[in-house]
Amino acid sequence: MISDPIGDMLTRIRNGYMAGNKNVTMPYSKSREAVVKVLIENKILADYQKDTKTLKKTLIVKLVEGRRRPFEIKRVSKPGRRIYLSNKNFYKVKGDQGVLIISTSKGVMDNKKANKLKIGGEIIAEIF
């Protein structure tokens, strides 16, 4: 059993880029799907699809071809230590070139969208 499914997903994506893979497969969950949708909106991932034909549901994520390799996906809020911020306390990632993924009461979104809605939440990850 995986103790941190979101951290596992981010590691699979990072390793997929480093290995030069085109797709990454992982077990399906609604929270993983929500994070993947935010990553697609920010052009970090190309596309995804759910595979429900097998006994265990899987999520197949298509990576962006030609993406620069040395980029970072860093898990911020972990199961042992949750990090929450209000929209006034969001920090800039790499001079505002990076993205914070935030779980809010309105769903999972990036820091720019959360700032427009003036809501805070749990900082899931930062990507730059």
Automatic annotation (TrEMBL):
It comes from the Bacteria. The keyword rRNA-binding applies. It holds the Pfam family Ribosomal_S8. The keyword DNA-binding does not apply. InterPro entries: Ribosomal_uS8, Ribosomal_uS8_sf. One of its GO terms (molecular function) is rRNA binding. SUPFAM superfamilies: Ribosomal protein S8. Keywords: Ribonucleoprotein, Ribosomal protein, RNA-binding, rRNA-binding. GO terms for cellular component: cytoplasm; ribonucleoprotein complex; ribosome. One of its GO terms (biological process) is translation. One of the primary rRNA binding proteins, it binds directly to 16S rRNA central domain where it helps coordinate assembly of the platform of the 30S subunit. Belongs to the universal ribosomal protein uS8 family. HAMAP family: Ribosomal_uS8_B. Part of the 30S ribosomal subunit. Contacts proteins S5 and S12. This is Small ribosomal subunit protein uS8. The lineage of its organism: Bacteria, Candidatus Roizmaniibacteriota.
